[in-house]
Amino acid sequence: MIPTTRLQNRPRRGFTIAEILVVLVIIAFASTVSLLAYSNYRKGATVRSAAEMVKRTMVDARYRAIAEGQTARLVFDLTHQAFWIDIVDGGGQVVTPMALPPTTFGLDVVMESVQIQGIVATTDQIAADFKADGTNPLTKVHLRREADDPNLDESYFTVQIYPSSAEPHIWPNTRR
Length: 176
Prior knowledge:
Blueprint: H1 4-9, H2 17-68, E1 71-77, E2 82-88, E3 94-104, E4 109-116, E5 119-121, E6 125-130, E7 139-145, E8 156-161, E9 168-172
């Protein structure tokens, strides 16, 4: 028979079930919070990537116009959710159709509207002419995730190029 004092002085080995369950609950909570944060980041990243594509295309249209000495027309097709660059002559006739082939967004990105010099389009096509002298019209493109609420400005990314500086900007979480 083992004396009881010997059993009481023996060091504990292992964890109790209660301790293990507490640790598992903490790990599950931290994992859930992390996954939700990453999911929200990914949602915004798809629209931000689309906004970057539009911004780069605006810059490309301006540079093409200056380099080729002809107007580069940036065409937005809201019906098919695509955009491209045509090169046009002084009379407005297309010389090089789709000099930059049509670009589309991912399945979950929507080009909600395009505003050029105050004219807003939500369907069909609208175009911004980038002139050989480096000028362009005030152009705004509103993008959002398809699953987001179209009534909330926070759902949108706005890509805007100014006529004075020809500097494009991306405004996240706003419809400007």
